[in-house]
Amino acid sequence: MVLEMLTGSDIKQDDKEIVEYHHNFQKWKDSLLERINTPWCMFDFPWKFYKMYHNHNEIVSNMNGFAKRRLEELMVKEKSNNKPKTEGKFISFLEELSNVGLSKQELLDEIHAVLFGGFETTATTTHFFCFMMALYPEYQELCRKEIDEVFSDPLLTHDGTLTYDAVSSLKFVEQCLLETLRLYPPAFMLMRNLKKNFIFDYEGKNVNVPSGTHIIIGAYAIQRSEKYYPNPEVFNPDRFLPEECAKRNPYTYLSFSAGPRNCVGYKFSMNELKTIVAYMLRKFEITTTDKLNDVTLLPNITLTPERGYNFLFKKRKF
Ligand code: HEM
Known about the structure:
The chain is α+β, with helices and mostly antiparallel strands. Helices cover about 50% and strands about 15% of the residues. It binds protoporphyrin IX containing FE.
């Protein structure tokens, strides 16, 4: 979906290049982790003598090759298309960016930023959402009720597919997604470099963190803190009712970060996730044989389950 939004082209699910890009992304993460876990490799000189360095370079060059090919295809398509830019179904994200005059390198950087930011985050969130729905069948039923109502409303569907308004109206599904992301934020910690001195109160003492310090903000820890979320380990979508959100400091929810460098794909990804799970729950009932503590969570750049959870998708009868 994210690549279709970027390029405006239909992407086949089994597109070999996409599957390969995904494998390369996983390998890139592994090489980055190996570098982080091997302290002397943090310096460029020893890192260059490490076996993983060469693998890392090969992976990066494969991913760059993919991004270049997709961009060139798009540029050829754009040249041969004489229609004015506003005509046609919709303008792809890359077309919009090239219209504002970004260079080829800047467009390539955007492709990587959006693919890195939008690929795995959405995939793992869908996976964790299925797990929560399987563990809490009462919430799965409530989501399905809301989804069925939308599908049976002729004003919210078009030839059996959901309209934008339909997706926007899935409020309870959205609450369940936000609650899933509270418990399982893919970006479980955020990193910042302080531009100003930062003074905060710690157990009655003023602590001064000087500007230039690299800090880590523990989104996972904040979102599982009893102080902000009573019974934090319990999946409770009511925490995201508007009146409950209004009671909380907005900076206690950091799944999409906050401030000027927050997630640019926030709205897109919520609509994407709501669409995916609406079609999934419309067609299937989800159960699992796994328990909450069966699978270890790994801090592998993004929050990743050690193995995938087991699901049974039972086709619904209408
Ligand atoms: C469940 C889905 C997603 C989650 C949880 C998520 C989370 C985040 C977070 C936490 C950040 C900030 C990182 C930081 O502050 O260091 C971020 C940045 C970003 N995200 Fe997302 N994201 C999601 C989906 C997407 C999608 C679908 C796209 C693309 C369409 C996207 C594009 C980006 C980009 C380009 C940035 C960098 C923004 C910047 O540095 O200014 N994300 N995302």
